[in-house]
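hi! just following up on the protien thing from before. the input was this:
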Amino acid sequence: MAGVRVVADSACDLPSSLAEAHGIEIVPLDVRLGEWGPEEMKLVGPAEFWRRCAMSEALPETSSPSPGAFAESFTRAADQGCPSVVCLTLSAGLSGTYQAARAGAEEVRGRIDVRVVDTRTVSVGEAMVVLETARVAAATCDLDLAEAAARAVVPNVQVFCTLDTMDNVRKGGRIGAARAFLGSLLSIKPILEICDGVVRGESRQRTRARSLQYLVEVVKRAGKLEALAVAHAAAEDLELFLDMLAGVFPREDTLVNYLGPVIGTHGGPGCLGVAYLRAGAA
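and the predicted 3d structure came back as:
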């Protein structure tokens, strides 16, 4: 019989190769970009998404999956012999996805046991929670232990990012308390963090170079790390940033992926994010 299935939403920006390797099923959020609707955009990879963004004057739009999309995923797991599912979602403070997953779990109640966990983070920070949950699920085949692993990691993952442009976040970003922080900025490069499940302004840096150095210092101050990940919105200085981080954490062990449409919609082109998990927290 198959073991505990791990399901996540596409806001985790987990590379498809890792999702496949760990048997993680991804439920996509809907993305619309101008004339390209959700069904077409589901077939578009992150690199192509950013290429199309550069071609379009339209601001991308996103929406949560329906409860039915989650219910279909949970039912598929049951049909494949899985006794249970742990479902990880991006922060409920940023999206209705968590509530949709909870509703989807109710639809399959009695068919398969589903535990839904709010990761209270986004992008590769969420991916860290997903990967640790999948590791424990595979090692133990125990639903309680897999859920407990997810909940234990959640408070120990930190996510920071810097924006290269504020056009997207001003027009439609879900920035919550960071709105006032960003509203008065001109050429200043803001540093944002995910705190208590929402986006908040962390600091202001005068240049892009200083913003990248500041992120490196944030990672250094975190101490010994279990994992490090970087997400980018087709940032031209990605390699430079990775070289800067290599002195803090081995580059070959750093997870690197595009910032996908869900979070990239609000971060905008050039956005660079870093997430870390402190050693001993997993």
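The domain at 156-278 is CATH 3.30.1180.10 (Hypothetical Protein Tm841; Chain: A;domain 3).
The longest strand covers residues 198-205.
cheers
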